[in-house]
């Protein structure tokens, strides 16, 4: 896979935002897969700045969700749909109609998962999927030992994940959902381009296992090794355990000018 080492999170955000902008210039109605959390915020901020500056017209672009809580009422401010609307859709000046996501409040969650997979395929597939990575190597909510062929499905949150997410629910564990809908690893691999962003020393071991370790269900992100166009963007801290870090720096620095992410 392609590994790009950048100085810091801001540089990584700018690099990925330009890749997204270039995609939208080539394909104005591109379907962009987005992730939630703090890691991708520099990407969305940089892309929104390009839109405001008139560097790219994203008005026809579409956005789709990676995962969603199960059981939160419609409009709950901490649903991932609400987060994506706040952090991506509104800053880019998109309409809510451009947004696709699974229905976490559906009565039949299994059917909702299957419907979301069908909707992504009917939309022509995801052109670029942005991913984060957990310290244990998970992507989306595909925890260690998830099937590498899995499709969109319901997953039970680990207790540690619920504890980590309690800060978004006034530190009240009773409010934190127990389940989520997540795109499966197989669904994620259907995207035409996968871009994983990782920053900070805490992600260094997971990045090393993903890039240089064996393909293993114990490290779900290692499935990116199977993809024909996967890019891993890491800052120096997250790259600190890569044995081939110097090689990756040299390779990217000497890429032909026409070859972008």
Outline the structure in words.
Its EC number is 3.5.99.6. Pathway: Amino-sugar metabolism; N-acetylneuraminate degradation; D-fructose 6-phosphate from N-acetylneuraminate: step 5/5. GO terms for molecular function: glucosamine-6-phosphate deaminase activity; identical protein binding. It is an enzyme of class 3 (hydrolase). With 261 residues, this protein is α/β, with parallel strands linked by helices. The protein has a domain at 18-193: 3-Layer(aba) Sandwich (Rossmann fold), CATH 3.40.50. Helices cover 32% and strands 16% of the residues. It contains eight helices and ten strands. It has a seven-stranded parallel sheet with strand order 1-10-9-6-2-3-5, sandwiched between helices. Strand 9, helix 7 (204-212) and strand 10 (230-235) form a beta-alpha-beta unit. It is globular and about 55 Å long. The termini are close together.
Short description:
The chain has 261 residues and is an alpha/beta fold. It is built from 8 helices and 10 strands. The protein is globular, with a radius of gyration of 18 Å.
């Amino acid at each position: 896979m392609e590994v790009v080492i950048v100085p810091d999170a801001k540089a990584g955000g700018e690099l990925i935002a330009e890749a997204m902008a270039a995609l939208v210039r080539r394909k104005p109605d591109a379907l962009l897969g987005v992730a939630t959390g703090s890691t991708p915020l520099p990407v969305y901020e940089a892309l929104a700045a390009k839109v405001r500056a008139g560097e790219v017209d994203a008005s026809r672009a579409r956005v789709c969700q990676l995962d969603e809580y199960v059981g939160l009422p419609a409009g709950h401010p901490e649903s991932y749909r609400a987060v994506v609307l706040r952090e991506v859709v509104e800053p880019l000046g998109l309409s809510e109609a451009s947004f696709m996501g699974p229905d976490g409040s559906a009565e039949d969650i299994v059917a909702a998962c299957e419907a979301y997979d069908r909707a992504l395929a009917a939309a022509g597939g995801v052109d670029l999927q942005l991913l984060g990575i957990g310290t244990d190597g998970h992507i989306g909510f595909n925890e260690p030992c998830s099937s590498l062929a899995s499709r969109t499905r319901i997953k039970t949150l680990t207790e540690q994940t619920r504890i980590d997410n309690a800060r978004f629910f006034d530190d009240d564990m009773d409010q934190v959902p127990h389940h989520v809908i997540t795109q499966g690893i197989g669904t994620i691999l259907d995207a035409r381009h996968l871009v994983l962003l990782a920053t900070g020393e805490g992600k260094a071991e997971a990045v090393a296992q993903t890039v240089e370790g064996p393909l293993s269900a114990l490290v779900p992100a290692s499935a990116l090794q199977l993809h024909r166009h996967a890019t891993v963007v890491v800052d120096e801290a997250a790259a600190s355990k890569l044995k081939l870090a110097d090689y990756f720096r040299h390779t990217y620095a000497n890429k032909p000018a026409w070859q972008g992410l």
